[in-house]
TrEMBL record:
Species this chain originates from: Urocynchramus pylzowi
Gene Ontology terms: cellular component: plasma membrane
Residues with 2',4',5'-topaquinone modification: 461
Domain Copper amine oxidase N3-terminal: from-to ranges: 161-258
GO biological process: amine metabolic process
Enzyme class: oxidoreductase
Protein name: Amine oxidase
Residues in Copper amine oxidase catalytic domain copies: 305-706
Amino acid sequence: MSLKTVLILLGLALATIFALVCVLLTRERTPRSCQHLPPEQEEMEDGQSLVFADLTAEEMSQVVRYLQGQLGVPLVDASRAKPWDNCIASVDLQVPAKAEVLRFLDAGGARPPREALAVLYFGKQPEPNVTEYVVGPLPAPAYHRDVTVQKYGGKVPYHRRPVTGKEYTDINALIQRELRKAPHFLTACCESDGTNLVTLTTAPRGFKSGDRVTWFVLFHNVAGTGYYLSPVGLEVLVDHGDLHVSRWQLRKVFYNGRYFASTGDLEQEFVAGALEVVRLKQPQADAVLGSMEPRQPPGPPGPLQFEPQGPRYRVRNNHVTFQGWSIAFGMNPNTGPRLFDIRYRGERIVYELSLQEALALYGSNCPGGMSTRYLDGSFGIGRFAYELVRGLDCPYTATYVDRHYLAETDTPKTNQNSLCIFEHDSALPLRRHFSDSQSFYYGGLRKNTLVIRTISTLINYDYIWDFVFHASGALEVRVHATGYISSSFFHGQGTDYGNRVGPHTLGTMHLHHIHYKVDLDVDGQLNSLETQDMEYEFVKDPWSAQNTIERPYLRRERLEKEDEAAFPLNVPMPRYLSFVSPNPNKWEHPRSYRIQIISFAGKHLPTNSSMERSVSWGRYQLAVTRRKEEEPTSTSIYNQNDPWTPTVAFADFINNETITNQDLVAWITVGFLHVPHAEDIPNTVTVGNGVGFFLRPYNYFNEDPSVDSSDSVYFSSEQDVGACGANPLACLSSAATCAPRLPPFHFGGFLNL
């Protein structure tokens, strides 16, 4: 072999070694740049947030066992209980009193005892009633106390109890028996023997206290589709108030604009040829209005959000931290999501932020639709928050959290992955400026937020509940409505109450009103309420006194009484309304947080309505009251079935007490009027169907706190903008190599149905 050949081979070998070294170094360097970084540590001792934590499944089971052994009465599992039985309806956390919690969190006091609130239906008593017990201490219960009279001023009458799944099952069995009395009519109207028809409940149930009489609307049932869009024109009124199921009766029948005493009378009219029948075909799955099956094959995947070095937030038990934010989160099985002890940069801003109620009120020329006023808390806003679909309901890489509940059974259930937490890039600058004058530079900050989300499916509607935390110290609360509209059978002057959206389907008008409790503690518990708005004044220009200037000026006012701080729905209120602290910021303005409401609410029920007091929170877009331990919620699960004598009437909270330098609560109503239209088929979209409010710092800080964000971008005309060290945006190309290995898709949300 010649020397030249040897040198060539040696050179090739060296080149190969050099290339391999480069590859190895690159491979070694990439994992270091992509390795997950530990999220920043936030101020809050480990375990403190557990004072607000939802009950564990084991704690719920301990409460059930304790009650079964200590009450001295037979308890039937609620899933099997008849109205004349005793049963445990639900078990949830008993949130400790605020004073106790603050002594523990802020003053080194003892941890409050952990307790549960158990709701029991006592049907097997001389005077059937609903009783609420506080049971503790957990995890080993040793005592219980009846708090019903303390909370409500007396025992809760039995007829106010929410309807259980077992009660619905027995009602459906009664309806099926009654339908068999009209076989010829059913064949003609619906191509049915009744077994392929499903019922939808309405509420409330009657017209006076003590009633338990419900209209049920019948629909064609087509598997895999939303039956809510296929009414057959038949509705039945069922009296199910008696403790004995055998005494329940069908009181009235409605079909296509006419009322009948029974299904037998309906059949008789049909056979006699005296009834006009709209002959409906049994809908097919591929042609039914409510089908959501894709009509096109899958296309290329859309954008995917991921964290190159792992999540920048930290979740531990019921506590999440993110870039100065600290939040304790949970879920009430009735009222839904609730947050506690919300802090920013170590300072508490909100003690409690919780959903209270969701009202859906309908109009129609059919009895079921016209009498429907759903109060969703009585059905279970939190209980029916099912598993979220990864990659659609929330980002694929979000953190998913299980929630446990015990309702209508002695065995706890788990809704897996039913709450998600994620950082969201809004694809919008939080702030920015491009300077083209004097000096040339660009400065800005991406609007990245932390989102806590859950979604409730309440019969036909799906509500998306979001709590959003911004780098500016602002907190955003929003709700979007989607799912199926509810409908009536189209007949007569139906379009006075909505739009026709199918051959025989009327999309019925309705309003969604949502109520929240916001216990703000701005720079301490003692706050006042201040409003600011603009006026114009006409003044002569001071330099010549010859011309008039229309000069805007700021009108400030401190509101002193609760009556002044109750702002009626749909009436203009001051544009700036703030909870203010007695303490000033650096510029001698009171440290404050502003409430900014985004809402398109419909009209509230007239106050002379017999059931208006049960939803009297809806009178106000905002009402500020003094915080009281005995006024924990604006409504009750018992209001749905007895709105005529409400167990809790929010209007009673407003009694003109002073609100200057007090512990205050803001009660906020948001909502929108929905007139269904063709584009609501098959589903209502979230676009334009979102409302909510902001809590924004207003002179709380001395400057925008986001200036301290490590995500800030700044470069000038004199810099090399492509240098990663000087401009974080120049680092994104290398960060893109850190795409995560996604976990396999899994969904178990059908398991608990």
